[in-house]
Amino acid sequence: MKYLHYLLAASIRRLRKRYAKTKYLDYYKKTLEFDGPTMVFTHDIDEGYEPNIDEIIDMEKKYGIKSTMFLLAMSHPSKKWISGNSKWDFQYHANFIGNSVKKVVEEKKIIDDLIGKKTEIMRAHQYHLPDLKLVKDYFKADSSYDNWTKLTLFKPFLTTLGLIEFPHLPEIEFINLYKGKGENIKLLYKDIVDVSRKTNGLIIVLTHPTSFKKWGRQIQEFFMIQDGFKIKTMYEIMDEIRRKYKIKYQPRFL
Ligand SMILES: [Zn+2]
Q1: Residue 221: which H helix or E strand, with range?
Q2: CA separation (Å) from 90 to 86, 195, 236, 254?
């Protein structure tokens, strides 16, 4: 029943802002299982300000973790910063808000050029992706589906399009439910961790640079100190699951 609060808050937010109008389940094919509990740390770099993202990198270095950063064309770190942190996994943060797919593909090239290779995974900015079909020719996986507004029980799934969907846990709702210095949220996250441990679940943590400064750090650290999880990047889990399930899907323009 603890999830109910989140579902309610997320539903209200969704009605108000119409952010999460994505029809992923139209393409649901089957749930994909990992061999053990797995965790991925991701960041949507909506504000490519380098002092903030340096703090993220510093903390990950402390725990020996490489995260995945989704980069937005309109606000991204410098090429110098990217090459200085080239061991991190960089993927594409697609902005569909007011943009056609043509524009989104053009902007993908900016990020691909910046990191020096083609991004294969995307996440939609504000979880706003009109149709998964629009991106299937350019990506092998998507991670725009958020676990607060649409429960998928922390498992990725294969779509009928060939693309894999990796649902993530955003920290956004924290803003509405931040009480007791986050102790209430920690209890909820603890439940999520316990269930994932028992069911070989996949937890994809999402924090943003600005909120990282305020309380995203505590969320991320909370997940980092949990035992029993393999920590990987998005690219690594995609590679692993494609091999395990023999997914041969090759997007047309990748
Ligand atoms: Zn975003």
Answers
A1: helix 217-224
A2: 8, 29, 12, 16
The 10 Å Cβ neighbour count of residue 183 is 8
CA–CA distance from 99 to each of 103, 104, 124, 202 (Å)? Answer: 6, 7, 12, 31
Could you count the other beta carbons within 10 Å of the beta carbon of residue 48? 18
For the chain, the farthest-separated pair of C-alpha atoms sits apart, in whole angstroms, at 50
CA of 188 to the centre of ligand 1 (A): 24
In angstroms, what is the span from residue 127 Cα to ligand 1's centroid? Answer: 7
Interval between CA 128 and ligand 1 midpoint (Å): 9
Residue 120, classed as helix, strand or coil, is coil
Burial label for 215, CB within 10 Å (0-12, 13-18, 19+), is: middle
| Of residues 84, 79, 130, the one with CA closest to residue 104 | 130
Q: Of 47-61, 69-83, 155-169, 234-248, which gets the smallest average pLDDT?
A: 47-61
Q: Which domains does the chain have, with CATH numbers?
A: 3-16+30-244 (3.20.20.370)
User: Considering the entire predicted model, what is its pTM?
Assistant: 0.88
